[in-house]
Amino acid sequence: MSKQYKVSELSLATGVPAATLRLWEQHGLIVPMRTASGYRMYSDEDFARVHQIVRLRSVQGLNLAAIKSALNELDDVLPATSGDEAPVPRLGFEIRRLRKQNKLTISALAKLVDVSTSTISTLERTSRGASVPLLRAVAQALGVTVTQLTAGPPQATKSVVRTGEGRQLPTLGKGITIRELASGPRMMDCQEWTLSPGAGSEGFYRHEGEEFIRVLEGSFEVEVDGLGIATLNEGDSIYFESNRAHSWRSVGPTPCRLLWVNTPPTF
Known about the structure:
three-stranded antiparallel β-sheet
């Protein structure tokens, strides 16, 4: 479900004054929804569109009429993205919100995560450049799970989840699709992962808990500190302590589909 932003939240997240957002609305650049009482509410798509407008205005120097024309052309000629290559629109906003909630400066969060200040700044402004290890580290520093950071609070899940049901989570990188099979106040993260050939974690990470992975289709390579590298094929599985540094990737010519369980919920 798309997150909804108030005009003040969208302004804080994008750095665009609320008055400017209203001006863009008057020119038809963005079209927020209205509540029954008349309040503007913006979607993830509006969030991403604001970033497009800022880029066209600051980088290309276009005026509002030219920006509207450029946006219309993009809407007409660009195919819908699969989500694999697009950033999570709300990610930067959520990192900034939680950082301020935890009374951390950008440099303080960067120090906790052991990355440069510019890395965190770029992540907050654009929602781009987030590998799985980086998101894992940021989430841990902010006291949430990766799922909460990218998709919001957990939703209650029915005991029986049929094929195709379950919340699809925002992508964590190119070629990674995750469907949530169980959530809420439970002891496990249960997810179905689909990885395009070559998609992977882009580095090692570790966290508390234990995890179980079973390959449903394709081939999967996982390297765990102390256990070495294992290539798992359809029907194979692995169980390990999550505090061991681990990395992974899809290997082979076809997509890889996994059942992935973490306990306690840390992803």
